[in-house]
Amino acid sequence: MFTGIVEEIGTVRHVEDTPSGRRLEIGAEAVLERLAVDDSIDVAGVCLTVVARDDRSFTVDVVPETLSRTTLGRLARGSHVDLERAATPTTALGGHIVQGHVDATTALVSRHAEGDGARLRFALPKGLARYVVEKGFITLDGVSLTVAALAKATFDVALIPHSARRTTLGSLRAGDLVNVEVDIIGKYVERLLQRSG
Question: Global pTM?
Fold first, then answer.
């Protein structure tokens, strides 16, 4: 489990196709302090398992299912990714409950500067529309955000200057894709209601 509070932006150092999918080596600093082989880590909103690490980077394997459902298949040497280590019992829940299980990808429709922050408008994936509510939680590339506005085909989020600087969302341009995870609580409620009635 994660909280959607990005700890740092990592840099892809090496990409290698393997018989099992793709192997990524990601350069980092802060997250390495408490990161071991077999630990879970959120990479651009995707929960992955650390399979190797050294004092400058860690390595993860990405299976075909994940490559087909996320933006990780587009990563190349030099790409930047948001990183968060798994939550512990003492982690402050500053964002919301994030699984790292991506529901869809979507594109940035428009970006409007608001001082040093920004208002970002994304296409609303049709299959997820029922889970997106104004002022509710949404996770984009691993970042816990509040839905600032909701329309039939789009939704907006507002980036404070700190988030614009400390996450990859600050450098997005129109047309760029992001990984989307909707709030898991809404999915569970829907499932329980379906089973009861």
Answer: 0.94
